[in-house]
Amino acid sequence: MTRKMLVTVLSVVLIMTALAACSGGKDEPSTEGETPTNNGEATTQPSDETGNGEATSEIPEPEGDLTWFGLMGQDQFEDRVGQYLKEKFPKLNITYINQTDEQRLEQIITSGMEIDMYFSTAGELYEDYIPANLATDLTTLIEKHGIDLDTFDSAYLDQVKVDDKLHLLPISDSKFVMYYNKDIFDRFGVDYPTDGMTWDQALELSKKLTRNEGGQQYVGLWLSPKHYLRVAQNSANFVDPETNKATVNNDDWKFIFEKIFYNFSRDPGVQQKATERWLAHGDFIKDFTMGMYVYTTVWMNDAENSLPFNWDVVSVPTFEEYAGLSTQPLANFVGVSATSKKQDTAMQVVKYLVSEEYQTIISKKGMVTPLKTQSVRDAAFEDYEFADSKNVDAVYYGTPAPGRKITRYDELVIEEAFALDAIVEIVRGKLDVNTALRQAEEKANKLIQEQMASE
């Protein structure tokens, strides 16, 4: 969400010190007085590259310094990105600054430090980088460096287009799957779920597992509400971008709330359990009282510590009304700063990050690729022992749903109006769907107005 600028002399000093330490004391030629353009550095010669990413004329090898900003921690950046960039571009020195409470985007900007690249989600683009005037249209750079946009599903790109200007490119996705605990299914003699089930079929399967046995309440299927809300398969919007008014008291959200949150919580035992202690991750991964749980592939990255012993996955259930559609993308993107004087150098790094070479590497490491390339998808989770024994193909089942229209106020609706109030009251049997949505819209509009007034 939009954050107020909290800049002090101390924070600027801390940032400057961190940057100096990360750059290893290297001196960089002064660029004072130069004016950056969307075409990059004036010294970079135009390339003549084909749409498949193969250069037909020579482009200088990237060298010098780049400053990169994002939420990813330093260790994670080095593991997932840094080590491969060092190997690919040995003459390039990248200073990575991860956002913390002491190093926020507003402070970096106010300090006068130049950001060349940044990690972002679609939401952060609208909440942070566009308001800060750091987002730039990549179209010219994409054409110049021969990046083929047809390698991505259009749903990824549509999320980060504003007025037909493409601001980011996806490098990985947080895909949703439906986890299940085989031991619970075996205990109750119920058949395992399968890829391609509808939500109605999943509901019937869930009912066979939902029961109270020996004082222990079992729940057949649940999910993380706020995570699913962001990627709902009917691509429902939260806020009208033209009016900044919440748009949740409508048939689109009624459809989702009835099909999922209402239908899967009609059992009195489930309602009582949710009243005593809200349904959460721990019920599936720690207490082992849930048969199925819809969540992202992040658990698969640490399966030994995060999942029940006898786990597997299938695709997220679909709706008959939206046949073949999986969830919307929940991707991690990379962008080039509008203020950078090294845009061409930054774009060469971006080109590598979206290449089949790099995408195959991270696919093996358990990062879900946004590429449609089958060979990259086939490499999914190869570095993990479970790759051959689990239904990894479920990750790419179906077609990503179109991205909703994102605004900088969406999280107010998701976190406050929906996740804290409406869904909780429905699951506990306190409110019907119509009343919950009406109250949620009223609360969301109040929150939006309060935030707009404080900006």
TrEMBL record:
Residues 23-64 are annotated as: Disordered. The keyword Signal applies. Residues 1-20 form the signal peptide. InterPro entries: Bact_solute-bd_prot1, SBP. The keyword Hydrolase does not apply. Residues 32-55 have a biased composition (Polar residues). Keywords: Signal. This is ABC transporter substrate-binding protein. It comes from Paenibacillus yanchengensis. The lineage of its organism: Bacteria, Bacillati, Bacillota, Bacilli, Bacillales.
